[in-house]
Design brief:
Strand content: 15-25%
Largest sheet: 10 strands, mixed
Structural class: alpha/beta
CATH topology of the largest domain: Spore Coat Polysaccharide Biosynthesis Protein SpsA, Chain A
CATH class of the largest domain: Alpha Beta
Number of domains: 4
Radius of gyration: 33 Å
Distance between the termini: 90 Å
């Protein structure tokens, strides 16, 4: 076994002392499968349960004395019809009790349960790692199912408990090709290990010799088959060596005052098991000792820039990169040694433009565990087991050409939101993103509630900026509408309904799947800022009517109740589960949506101001009071209006104008939010006059924002009530609102004129000649073309 590169054995019984000692001498680990009467309806027999407890205690009591024991499997493939008979919940509780009994005897031992596809729905969260026995001969089906299992078990390591092929039916050459190909697939996907069934054809079950199959990689006389030599080639090489190609990868780390965790990050990136990569550290104007830490890693390319925000730093890394693939992680992360291998492999297997992986929570103490269990953590969103809608910025990689095709990251995202924006823009460009569940990084969460809430404020600000760019992906309150499933315990809302299991006819389905209903999104409502504003207004009206005195406490009570229930469902690290931890998480569940929505509204009301305003040589432009103006530009070199629009979008993005681009459903091309209360809608059209001559028309329309429309509605309501009730107070309120609306409109006109000047300057830079006039051309297109040509010679 050692000569074949095998370093672990799975036994299906409690091994005798001589085997434990021999394994220790040969430095071979043991996964001990503890047998008991799992094929019976064991929960209905007190004796069967006692025997199971006794078997587990005896095996773990003996095994704890040997370092060769890797782990204990407290069960193996309880038949699906037995689980159906007892009920999944009862079986899960019994297995959890067996795990507790094993830990009492061997506190340091690792515990698992060997599951298989017909009972994949069992909740085995008590296990230290997941083990699945999988027999699928088709390699693509095998790969897809492993991806499913990796997403199913989440952050737990996944071990392939059994994989094998019978040589009586498929031949020794077929077995060798099958095992080598499937095991390479498992290791390239990032599984923690795999056991081949079996070592030898000499096999007994229930005291009887098995003669109608031969799954061994050696024959009954222990002579090796072809698969023995094939497996030696798999077991003795690293996953990176199994890649068909190893394109150069540029790893970019962007840091702003991240010295606390930077050294750990760079140290992990220095020990990646990948043959061709570089590490680029972009220091975004840090004031701590980031530069001194970087100097300790001479192989890291250090780039310093003035503080310009996260997106600009990512683009700086992109420009400096020399690899075909550009991977990003953060300075508060450290990577698994095979991280790059597991990112590159799915890019090779698919035509995806990008790939991402999970980010796991390291051991950072009790308070950090509470923060990690709170909502709003960076996570991935999957449309299915292979296609991602979003990958987190701390663990993502792109084909360099794909990232350059969409002009990299949007500079307006200085703190967060850059990863969401780039994912959505890739998909809008017709590309797609895949997911690699085995390519993980460890991501330090915020260490205190204060820093966590500050992070959520940044996310709220980013959501408002994303709303300007991608309005179709947000609801009316400005919250993102994900099409896929959020992983890592980040699903918003409460789980009110129980899961449903598809078992197949008579409970004989080979793949019996658990379907978890989506969270009840109405439970998010009591946590919103709008809900609390209404409750506050009712509190102000407490003395007016009895209804307010009942509704206000009820609304606030429901908000606290929902926060407490969300905390009860939060996936807190078992080591830190306590009433105290639940109370901390409940407080964060209550505050998180309020902080996030406050900053979302604040940013939408007061979007970032442009970095500078264009200065024209001619007289400044002005919108009329009606807010509508048309400008015309003449060109004789086949320039298209979309070229002008692209130049405008680039300018607005680079100079931090809040703008929305037509998503295909609007009667305008751009909507520029140059003022919190007004928006400037830009629509273009072009006339073709032959011989490369074109007239590009640009129409500007100033429109009130939704907030201004709310003020107008309040003013009209106050006016109507004043006329109806002849109330002087309401009349004064209506007049004040009218004055406020007029001032907002006047201010909006002035700011919109600045946007018009910027567009005119861009048109001039393109060589377009402004020619709008009060004249109205009549006649054919040719006569208009000739007239214009003559006018401007």
């Amino acid at each position: 076994m050692r000569a074949a590169g095998i370093n672990s054995i799975r036994t299906y019984y409690s091994p005798p002392t001589w085997l434990l000692e021999t394994a220790e001498e040969q430095n071979i680990g043991l996964l001990i499968d503890i047998p008991w009467s799992k094929h019976l309806c064991f929960l209905e027999s007190a004796q069967a349960r006692r025997e199971a407890y006794q078997a587990v205690r005896e095996a773990t009591r003996r095994g704890r004395r040997y370092s060769s024991v890797l782990a204990y499997s407290i069960g193996n493939e309880i038949p699906a019809n037995i689980v159906r008979w007892h009920g999944a919940a009862r079986v899960e509780r019994f297995l959890a009790e067996l795990a507790d009994a094993a830990r009492q005897e061997d506190p340091d031992g690792l515990i698992t349960y060997a599951n298989y596809p017909p009972t994949e729905y069992l909740d085995l969260s008590f296990a230290d790692f997941a083990t699945f026995n999988v027999y699928l001969h088709d390699r693509e089906a095998f790969r897809r199912y492993l991806l499913r299992l990796q997403n199913l078990v989440g952050g737990k390591p996944l071990v392939l408990g059994e994989i094998g092929m019978d040589t009586l039916r498929h031949g020794e050459a077929g077995q060798a090709a099958f095992l080598s190909g499937h095991l390479q697939e498992a290791f390239l996907l990032g599984l923690a290990g795999a056991f081949v069934f079996s070592w030898t054809d000499d096999w007994f079950t229930g005291g009887y010799q098995i003669e109608d199959w031969a799954f061994g990689i050696t024959r009954a006389d222990r002579s090796p088959k072809e698969s023995y030599f094939a497996l030696r080639g798999v077991f003795t090489c690293s996953p990176a060596e199994a890649l068909a190609e190893t394109p150069r990868v540029s790893v970019v780390v962007c840091s702003y005052n991240g010295a606390r965790t930077l050294e750990q990050c760079l140290h992990s990136l220095s020990h990646l098991d990948y043959p061709d990569y570089e590490v680029i550290l972009v220091d975004d104007g840090s004031t701590d000792n980031t530069a001194q830490i970087a100097a300790r890693f001479p192989h890291v390319r250090y780039i310093y820039q003035e503080n310009q925000g996260l997106s600009v730093a990512r683009n700086t890394g992109l420009r400096a990169a020399t690899g075909e693939v550009v991977a990003y992680t953060d300075s508060d992360c450290f990577a698994d040694p095979a991280w790059l291998t597991h990112l590159v492999y799915p890019l090779q297997q698919s035509g995806a433009a990008a790939v991402g992986g999970p980010n796991l929570t390291p051991e950072d103490g009790w308070l950090a565990a509470c923060v990690a269990a709170s909502p709003g953590q960076p996570t991935h969103v999957l449309l299915n087991d292979q296609v991602a809608e979003h990958i987190p910025g701390c663990n993502m990689a792109f084909r360099r050409k794909a990232l350059e095709a969409i002009n990299g990251f949007n500079p307006q995202y200085r703190k967060a939101g850059d990863d969401v924006d780039v994912c959505w823009r890739l998909q809008q460009a017709g590309m797609w993103i895949t997911f690699a569940p085995g390519a993980f990084v460890w991501h330090h969460r915020r260490q205190t509630p204060r820093t966590y809430l500050k992070q959520q404020a940044g996310y709220g600000e980013a959501e408002a900026l994303l709303w300007f760019e991608h309005p179709d992906r947000f609801n009316g309150r400005g919250e993102s509408k994900w099409q896929g499933t959020l992983y890592g315990g980040a699903e918003p809302g409460l789980q009110l309904g129980g899961p449903v299991i598809y078992r197949g006819t008579f409970g004989e389905g080979l793949f019996q799947t658990l379907y978890q209903p989506p969270a009840a999104h109405w439970t998010l409502l009591p946590g919103t800022l709008e809900w609390h504003v209404i409750a506050l207004l009712l509190c102000m009206l407490w003395g007016i009517g009895s209804a307010a005195s009942i509704l206000a406490p009820a609304m606030l009570g429901l908000s606290f109740t929902v926060a407490a229930l969300r905390a009860a469902q939060a996936p807190i690290d078992p080591k830190y589960k306590s009433i105290k931890s639940r109370l901390v998480v409940a407080g964060l569940c209550y505050l998180q949506p309020l902080v996030r929505s406050w900053w979302r509204y604040r940013t939408r009301l007061f979007p970032p101001l442009p970095t500078h305003e264009p200065k024209l040589q001619n007289a400044p432009l002005r919108l009329p009071l009606t807010g509508v103006r048309i400008m015309e530009f003449w060109d004789e070199s086949w320039r298209d209006r979309t070229e002008l629009l692209g130049s405008i979008v680039g300018y607005l993005t680079n100079h931090r104008w809040a703008a929305r681009v037509d998503s295909g459903w609007n009667d305008w091309d751009l909507e520029i939010h140059c003022h919190p209360w007004t928006v400037l809608q830009v629509c273009t059209a072009q006339e073709n006059h032959g011989s490369g001559k074109r007239l590009i028309r640009v129409r500007y329309r100033l429109r009130p924002s939704e907030y201004a429309r709310a003020i107008a509605a309040l003013g009209l309501a106050a006016t109507a009530l004043a006329f109806h009730g002849q109330t002087l107070f309401l009349a004064v309120i209506a007049a004040l609102l009218a004055v406020l609306y007029a001032c907002l409109w006047w201010r909006g006109r002035r700011l919109a004129s600045q946007a018009m000047e910027a567009i005119q300057a861009l048109a001039s830079d393109m060589g377009l000649l402004r020619c709008d006039s009060p004249l109205r051309w009549k006649g054919s297109a040719r006569s208009r073309s000739e007239a214009r040509s003559g006018q401007f010679r």
